[in-house]
Specification:
single chain, 89 residues, alpha+beta, 3-stranded antiparallel sheet, 1 helix
Length: 89
């Protein structure tokens, strides 16, 4: 897989109560997240924007916004396949 995980990204934040609950049904709050596997990477400091709200159905409009490709890559990065025992299927 030729994919490099990002050191940080923006994702929806599910605890809107921490922000403006009056607008909860109109969109979601997005926050910066550091990749726990890369927290010491200097690039992890690139996501410095304060939490921001995005209307439902709209693109966040920031380069590091999480998308399906990034989600799949992060899942792949964190997947641990246990070893199999010989003779078992």
């Amino acid at each position: 897989m030729d994919w490099e995980p990002p050191a940080c990204w923006y994702e929806p934040y599910w605890k809107a109560k921490d922000f403006n609950v009056a607008r909860n049904d109109e969109g979601m709050w997005w926050v910066a997240v550091k990749n726990p596997e890369m927290k010491d990477d200097p690039a992890a400091k690139a996501c410095t924007r304060d939490p921001f709200r995005v209307d439902n159905g709209k693109n966040p409009g920031v380069p590091q916004a999480i998308d399906t490709e990034t989600l799949a890559g992060l899942a792949h990065q964190r997947t641990v396949v246990p070893p199999t025992k010989p003779g078992r299927r």
